[in-house]
Amino acid sequence: MTQRVLDVSSLEHGPTDSRALLWWGNLGMLAIEGSMFMMVLAAYLYLKTANLDWPPATVPKPDLLLPTLNLIILLLTLVPAVISDRAAAREDTRTALAAQWVCVLAGIAFAIIRGINMAHLGYKWSDHAYGSVVWTTFGLHSLHVVVCTAETSLLLTYSLFHPLVKKHLLDLRCTAVYWYFLVASWLPFYFVIYIEPWMTRKGS
Q1: Distances from the Cα of 181 to the Cα of 74, 114, 124, 130, 184, angstroms
Q2: Is residue 175 part of a domain?
């Protein structure tokens, strides 16, 4: 019986870019999540046009200190995310992991500040339509921050006990793209929830 042996040692172990199915799967998931955020934003804008009193007069103008601090933290995560993404692309595992640790710490700080901010909004989700859509927005985005932080933490914890192989570099790159998404998805909501009320409403 003749046995044929195929030498595949020269083949690449696995791509870490758009040639990988996981790359497109990650982008597809983010597209779905992004459409969900767009629907929430559309609901906010629809309710704004359907209500003359928006935000309601009972809602105080938003305090900008904590939300702006959180926005700055979120924007700063772009730096380690880009560093991690590029390091993983050139197979520099050590740099990629170090940058991801910074993202995790930033995610934890963001979640804590978000929690404090939500506790002092001055209205509940059940008070009115404005409260419902704002709390829904906070809940969705906060959930994504927590999930991304937890996912990154799991990957980093794994790296402490097991050597990372090339396929894990793709995981690092996809996680970095997730951080990009977290930043981009929050920017329009920061404007409509925190900035626009100061531009359009008079009084306290």
Answers
A1: 11, 18, 27, 25, 5
A2: yes
Q: Is residue 11 part of a domain?
A: no
CATH number of the domain residue 43 falls in:
1.20.120.80
9 inside domain: no
| pLDDT greater than 70 at residue 106 | yes
Residue 4 maps to a domain: no
pLDDT above 90: percentage of residues in the chain: 48
**Structural domains counted in the chain:** 1
pLDDT, residue 138, reads: 94
* Concatenated DSSP letters of the chain: --------TTS-S--SSTTSHHHHHHHHHHHHHHHHHHHHHHHHHHHHHH-SSSS-TTSPPPP-HHHHHHHHHHHHTHHHHHHHHHHHHTT-HHHHHHHHHHHHHHHHHHHHHHHHHHHTSSS-TTS-HHHHHHHHHHHHHHHHHHHHHHHHHHHHHHHHHS---HHHHHHHHHHHHHHHHHHHHHHHHHIIIIIHHHHH----
Radius of gyration of the chain (CA): 21
Q: What is the mean pLDDT of the chain?
A: 86
Look up the domain containing 144 and give its range.
Answer: 21-49+64-198
